């Protein structure tokens, strides 16, 4: 598990700098709830997760909902005392870990507490991630009745050998079943896929992508496998147990996904995300890509309020002790510079279909240099000419394959 970022000490009262409270009413406010429990820790995972239900000291699965509610109450108090205006929640996302390791009633308890404390915008999206083996039909109906609107299933692949390399324990045949149950409950459905697993062939990836389309979810995410240091899979690759696919195969997999998803009625709206309509895009992820505000609840969760970012203690025991004492569970924080915020805005916004407004580049370089970079990107077929004429940088299909190169060309000094 990787170390946390290095930052400045976080105040025990959680107070946010006065500058970050300014004009917050113009920004959307979301909530992320991190549930760190898993049945098995996957070999590729570097998230803050634990394959145990009981840490001792009265901390564990059974006490998690109570501790999450304690941090929610702390968050409301801190924001008000910091001068941040009350804002109803734009979106709520329960991630992990496996949130559905918690009983559905506990998830609903946390959600209803959040709504009581902050309110909820009309049309707000409320999502939980789920392992296809961690829910039954009644759970999904209980979640929908309790206010959830969306469920995201970790499908990853339909190929048993690929799932074995990833240490995924779910049964592929359960995915279409739980997708159908969720639809019957009235939930929007997303499925998450991973491509580029060591040993995975292009044909196997195509089979997984086609299966995902055949289940007819509202949304599909398809992420390339990133090997993070400190994970089991990183050690296996280092020992030579597995070999990562080359860049050409990864590009072919991305192009295959584009072909299969497009034929199935799914349209890209972010480099790794596809939806059937604009209404079924991930509202919560859009808040991240637009660098809006969110409070992260739970061990290791990250938060961001208008340029101030902090992250909670990772281990559930010290985290729980802090929130039970009414103190900030933050491990550290940082106040972002204007330059860092501009860089992050550009890096994130260039990835979405709406694109980056060219005016965002003003001040970073001379107008002549900016135009020269745009000319080069257009000549290379990486950005759409029509969008450029409208004042936006929008990636072409080739540009999506080389998004990092586009960002470096736009911001060569960062």
UniProtKB/TrEMBL annotation:
Gene3D superfamilies: 3.30.750.200. CDD domains: Radical_SAM. Residues 23-270 form the Radical SAM core domain. It comes from the Bacteria. Transmembrane segments: none annotated. It is found in: Cytoplasm. Keywords: 4Fe-4S, Chaperone, Cytoplasm, Heme, Iron, Iron-sulfur, Metal-binding, S-adenosyl-L-methionine. Belongs to the anaerobic coproporphyrinogen-III oxidase family. HemW subfamily. Probably acts as a heme chaperone, transferring heme to an unknown acceptor. Binds one molecule of heme per monomer, possibly covalently. Binds 1 [4Fe-4S] cluster. The cluster is coordinated with 3 cysteines and an exchangeable S-adenosyl-L-methionine. This is Heme chaperone HemW. The lineage of its organism: Bacteria, Bacillati, Actinomycetota, Actinomycetes, Micrococcales.
